[in-house]
Design brief:
mainly alpha
């Protein structure tokens, strides 16, 4: 495809960063755009797999402690999140339940987005849940004087995954240094390795789980060499 057609379809403002990053070489700019799409697709798959594994681990944990309908029960009067400290948590659960044509616990789990599951490690939700949720990361390192691998650590670190997920969902490029026109895969690589680390802390063999799906380092290298 000619660049003029490519640009007409995707818009000049969207492609301007790619052209500038490639020093005006429009053919390279089209290649960079396509590689960014492939990288975004694979990162989204990675984050999607983590999101499902993470929320399922939380579900298993609380199902043992509070019963197989724990999430719906948690929002009801007397439920573990139905108090003045957990903010919108019970409301989010109740609203998600209303969206279901036919209720099931598994459908309710799937209906609620990643931001909610991240907040399971927020101070009040963590305490209301019995301060036991660190069990979903059984292989996490032991805390030391520099880093405390507590609920606050995971609440803060999971925000990185949430930000990446939102960037990908809104089709923001991941092949640039954040906020610049400079081609750089550091952001993609750092988040990639961090999600792999989270899998390991959950005692999930990430390379087996992602077999045939993960070409992220290869794509980053192709972008770096472009």
């Amino acid at each position: 495809m000619k660049f003029t057609t490519f640009e007409y379809i995707l818009s000049q403002p969207r492609l301007a960063r790619y052209v500038k990053a490639c020093a005006g070489n429009t053919r390279q700019a089209m290649t960079l755009y396509r590689l960014n799409l492939k990288l975004s697709q694979e990162l989204f798959t990675l984050v999607g797999c983590f999101e499902v594994a993470y929320r399922n681990a939380i579900d298993r944990h609380y199902s043992v402690r509070s019963g197989t309908d724990w999430l719906r029960d948690a929002a009801r009067p007397g439920g573990m999140f139905n108090n003045g400290l957990c903010g919108k948590t019970p409301y989010i659960i109740s609203e998600a339940e209303k969206k279901l044509l036919v209720y099931s616990h598994s459908k309710l789990i799937a209906e609620i987005d990643f931001g909610f599951w991240r907040y399971m490690f927020a101070r009040h939700q963590f305490r209301s849940g019995g301060q036991s949720l660190l069990a979903v990361f059984p292989a996490k390192p032991k805390s030391n004087p520099v880093i405390h691998y507590n609920n606050h650590f995971f609440f803060t670190q999971l925000e990185k995954v949430n930000i990446l997920r939102n960037r990908l969902a809104h089709h923001e490029p991941v092949c640039f240094q954040i906020g610049t026109h400079t081609k750089d895969t550091s952001y993609a690589r750092q988040n990639y390795f961090f999600v792999l680390q989270l899998f390991r802390w959950m005692e999930i063999h990430e390379s087996s789980l992602l077999y045939g799906l993960d070409h992220i380092q290869e794509l980053c290298s192709r972008i770096d060499k472009l």
